Every structure is written in C-alpha cells, then in structure tokens.
Recover the amino acids of this structure.
C-alpha cells in the first residue's frame, strides 16, 4: 500500500518511519530543504524505553505527485492549509488521515479536500526532532480513529488497519470528544516553552506544577460548559484526572510533577518548546488559544490560558524566556 505523510515534523517523521518499518510504501512530504536532508541522511527513530533504533526506508519529497491510497496529514496546524492546498490535486482521491493534538486539523483540510474522505486520528505521543529525520521517541502511546464528518466505515477501517501496524489503535464513534480530551491534556505544555525548561525540570518545581493544574482545571470547566465529555483515551485514565483535580492544589501539584517525571527517562521538550527551539512558530494558538476560542463562544472566562498564549507569543517575539519569578508573579496577578 502506498502512503504519503504530509509534514516533516516529529509526529510526521515518527509515523512515516513506523509505517515504513511495517512494510508500507511511504513517502514523507515537506519543505525542500528538509526533504533533501532526509534523502541524504535517512529517517531514524530512537526509542528511549528500550534503546532500539528504527531506520526505515522512506522516500522524501517536496510535493505530492501521484495519488496514494492513504494521505496522512501530520504538518503543524498553522502549516496545514497550505500543505493541504498543495497536495489537493492528488490527495483528494485518497483516504485522508489527520493526526493531531487539538481540534482543528480536519477542519482545515476539509476546506480544500472532500470532507467525507477524512478520518481523524488522535494520538498520544512524545517525540522530539532536533533535525529533520532524526527523532527521539520518548513514549509511544495509543491512537483512536473515527470519522471526522461523513467518512464511510470502509475508510475508517482502512486507516485503522494501517495504523494498528504501528500503534495500539481503537475505532471510536464520537471522535470530537477525544479531540477535546487531547486538547485538554496538552494545555500545560505551554509552560516549559515560557520559562525555557524541559517538561520534567519545569514540573519538578511544585510552584510551576500548580500552574499546570490550574490550567487543567480551567480547561476542564470549559469542556464541561461546552457539554463535551472527557473521553477515555486508551492510555489515559479519566478517573486519574478527576482525582487529581479534586485534590488540594498543593497536593495535586506534587502528583502532577510525579506524573511528568515518569513520562520518559530523558527530558522532553513538549510540542510548544520544541517549535521555539527550532526557531519555528509554535502551535500555541491551536492549543491554549483554541481553548480560549471555545470559551469565548460560550462567554466563559479563561484568564489563565489567555495569559499563556500572550506569554508564548512574547517569547517567540523577543527570543527570551520568562524567568520563573516573573512568571509566578504574573500568575498571581490574575
């Protein structure tokens, strides 16, 4: 089966490599300079938990030139519209799989590609990519797939059968609930990007971890206000989140820090800090910013997430991280 992966990103490189290792005919599509680097150096994924290295045969190209059976969109959200527009002449004839952390990718792709071709994939993954094609995979979680709009069941099954060759994969009906759950769980990852520390280092400080818990509390209230259920991702226990948020704040902060310390044996960047360290625009507007947008429609205040968006943009603009003391002072002023 021929598969095209759009997006030379940590997620795109990981998916392309794992599917290539599984025996599929995979081409990864991205900017010419990144595609050329993969062509020269190959595509490698180093799995932290067992020390193994995957080096898969995957072609790299700067554009899609024929119609694959499945086109996977794994570009950064802000780059997805242009990527979908460029790929549409060929991708429109294939099954589309969008892989995302938030809620927008399939909506963006549907602007230029038939929406009933689109299957949404929600993936829990910890991947870092310091150079194109060189991925450190901190943890490989699970994937759920479901119809974004009116995709027929055969398309959903097609995507599931492919993805379960690389990930533990489940098919679900109400994929929007899983999108919102993934969006909620990503809210704290803006903090390492603001203070300039890796995830484990940042949240080992109970004062910083308190802010992470407050972001989750604010996001949970928005999701409840929108009458969206927190869906149980296969490797995420909803009861654990509810128990965490019900604890006294100081105790919840300590527990949150312990959870993040157990994520990986090596420090993780998180998606927002990863983009900043690569000198690329982050997805903050589609992460915490999207939670703010949902709340605005409901007329619900989200002062903490709104501040996070402003602070990440400040770091992007100035090139300077915010000191912990200033960061905590800003939080206390809300």
């Amino acid at each position: 089966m021929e598969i095209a992966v759009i997006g030379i990103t940590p997620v795109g490189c990981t998916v392309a490599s794992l599917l290539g290792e599984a025996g599929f005919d995979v081409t990864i599509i991205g900017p010419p300079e990144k595609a050329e680097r993969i062509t020269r150096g190959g595509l490698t994924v180093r799995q932290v938990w067992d020390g193994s290295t995957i080096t898969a045969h995957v072609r790299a190209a700067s554009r899609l030139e024929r119609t694959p059976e499945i086109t996977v969109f794994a570009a950064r959200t802000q780059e997805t519209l242009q990527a979908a527009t460029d790929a549409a002449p060929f991708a429109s004839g294939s099954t589309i799989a969008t892989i995302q952390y938030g809620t927008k990718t399939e909506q963006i792709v549907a602007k230029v590609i038939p929406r009933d071709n689109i299957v949404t994939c929600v993936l829990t993954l910890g991947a870092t990519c310091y150079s194109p094609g060189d991925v450190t995979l901190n943890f490989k979680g699970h994937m759920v797939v479901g119809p974004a709009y009116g995709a027929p069941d055969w398309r959903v099954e097609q995507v599931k059968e492919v993805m379960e060759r690389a990930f533990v994969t489940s098919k679900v009906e109400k994929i929007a609930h899983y999108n919102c759950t993934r969006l909620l769980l990503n809210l704290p990852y803006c903090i390492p990007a603001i203070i300039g520390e890796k995830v484990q280092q940042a949240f080992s400080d109970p004062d910083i971890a308190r802010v992470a818990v407050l972001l989750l509390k604010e996001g949970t209230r928005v999701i409840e206000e929108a009458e969206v259920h927190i869906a149980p991702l296969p490797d995420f226990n909803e009861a654990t989140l509810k128990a965490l948020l019900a604890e006294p704040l100081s105790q919840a902060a300590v527990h949150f820090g312990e959870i993040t310390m157990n994520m990986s044996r090596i420090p993780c960047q998180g998606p927002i800090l990863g983009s900043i360290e690569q000198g690329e625009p982050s997805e903050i507007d589609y992460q915490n910013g999207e939670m703010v947008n949902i709340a605005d429609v409901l007329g619900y205040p989200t002062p903490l997430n709104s501040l996070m968006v402003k602070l990440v943009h400040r770091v992007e603009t100035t090139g300077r991280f915010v000191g912990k003391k200033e960061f905590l002072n800003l939080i206390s002023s809300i």
Q: What stands out?
A: The mean pLDDT is 92. The domain at 2-173 is CATH 3.40.50.720 (Rossmann fold). The CA atoms of residues 209 and 308 lie 14 Å apart. The first helix runs from residue 10 to 21.
